[in-house]
UniProtKB/TrEMBL annotation:
Sequence similarity: Belongs to the dTDP-4-dehydrorhamnose reductase family.
Domain of life: Bacteria
Catalysed conversion reaction: dTDP-beta-L-rhamnose + NADP(+) = dTDP-4-dehydro-beta-L-rhamnose + NADPH + H(+)
Protein's GO biological process: dTDP-rhamnose biosynthetic process; O antigen biosynthetic process
SUPFAM superfamilies: NAD(P)-binding Rossmann-fold domains
Source organism per UniProt: Pseudoalteromonas piscicida
EC category: oxidoreductase
InterPro entries documented for this protein: dTDP_dehydrorham_reduct, NAD(P)-bd_dom_sf, RmlD-like-bd
Protein name according to UniProt: dTDP-4-dehydrorhamnose reductase
Amino acid sequence: MRRTLIIGGDSNIGRYFREQHKEVAFTSRRSNAELFLDLSDPNSFEGVFKTIKEKKISSVIFLAAITKIADCENKPERSHKLNVENTCILIKELHNLGCFTVFISTNHIFDCKSPKMAVNSPKKPFSIYGQHKLEVEEYIIQHCLNVAILRPTKILTPCFSLVNAMLRDLKNGIQFEAFDDHFFSPVSINFFCDCLTEILLSKKTGVYQISGENDLSYYTFLREVAIINNLDPKLVIPIKAESKQVIAANYGSLKPKWFNDSMSGTQSALETVKLFYNG
């Protein structure tokens, strides 16, 4: 991984991957960063291209993006500028520099109305975030770029703010609301990064999918977290997503697509819960 660069190294995924592979280079939006990059400012790209040449970077993990669904919905033009236009500029130049790039996409390129969506299922984006990821996918394929597209479902980390907020409330005997009609199919960041490493080592282009084995409502998920932490699951109160102006996803799972038999492409959603949130 010595000649690998993470674009978006301050993200949760970026930080975790850096902890596992301390030799990787990474970009940051921090003003004092060794390698500064702001996706909203194409003028900052030149420093990255220079570093790629100097350090002979051969592989890139592309994580930089506006990832919050609400931010993309509230400011779609800004989202398109960063998540599509500037992203495509960067990816095309990475290709020109001879880099193999892994672009992180999303299950939101589908409508989330059916479970286990196959890699070539019809694309009907669930969100603006998904629409913009799809546009980048199409650009990559149209221009035959040296890029692997990785579509994960929800990636869980130990610092998931929703879980931390619920645990705090339940420990104080306070009820916590959770959507019982909004579903997802989580994988752990450990599993995701293992899959990402496999792709980087293979340098095989294509479209890949990883997913939890099953779909969970946020209500079921948070009740499970409460139970394994010996807290009262009755304090988790079911509500409808619409009550919080959230569009409910009927499903979040994908049919896994991988390039060899070394990994199944799926992970038990409940095992993921136990991995991170047990006590």
